[in-house]
Amino acid sequence: MASEELAQKLQRRLQLEESGAAAEGEAVAEGEAEGETAADKGEAAAGAEAERGCLTARADAELSAKLCRRQDINEGAAQPRRAAVFNPYTEFKEFSRRQIKDMERMFRLYDSGRDGYIDLMELKLMMEKLGAPQTHLGLKNMIKEVDEDFDGKLSFREFLLIFHKAAAGELEEDSGLLTLAKLSEIDVSIEGVKGAKNFFEAKVQALSSASKFEAEIKAEQDERKREEEERKHRRAAFRELKSAFTQ
């Protein structure tokens, strides 16, 4: 990703230089057409050169800031940027509410530091528990595949990206993340990881996301009501039994 950013910055700088050169050429051509003096031409060229230097300096400053940020990240000195608040149910619509809750429970299970992240050592423990231990380099590569903010650890959103990429078939066969998705207790598809994309597409066609969401909420509410009714019956039975003994 750093190389892509660098390429974009260099391309932008080249465009700025080309636009500056074009502006300078137009100024010179206009000066000749209107019979401007040599002094006027020189002044116009100097102005164009100054403007080009200003734009180039600005591009250099942005590129330098990016490179400094990358260096701080590599050295572990960068402060992680605050992640935007997101709604997993709307952003990851291919998963049901129950699947997302299962993923959240798994995430919290291995977030032993209770800081909202799975770091390198916690990921190491997770892979060992799943029966697929990884090397230190392998663990770092796993995090790098979904580490969008370059903080060297997995947020819950980045954890969900693992299963999103697995469902979309975007992970290599030898990827540690694909191994994690296959071995976890969360089934991304009843047909396996490779068939997950078709499986989710079929679900979307059969039932809209909105109606599915509402149906799952209603099912959870009904379940809570049923449990509450059972608790009331147990309390009533206990009171009757207690009164029978006290008479």
UniProtKB/TrEMBL annotation:
Keywords per UniProt: Calcium, Coiled coil, Metal-binding, Repeat
Cellular component annotations (GO), alphabetically ordered: mitochondrial inner membrane
Statement: the UniProt record of this protein carries the keyword Repeat: yes
Location of the EF-hand domain: 98-133, 134-169
Segments of this protein annotated with the region Disordered: 16-50
GO molecular function, one term: calcium ion sensor activity
Biased composition (Acidic residues): 27-37
Pfam family, one: EF-hand_7
Coiled coil ranges: 210-237
Entry annotated with the keyword Glycoprotein: no
Composition-biased stretches (Low complexity): 17-26
Stated name of the protein: EFHD1 protein
Organism: Bucorvus abyssinicus (Northern ground-hornbill)
Gene behind the chain: Efhd1
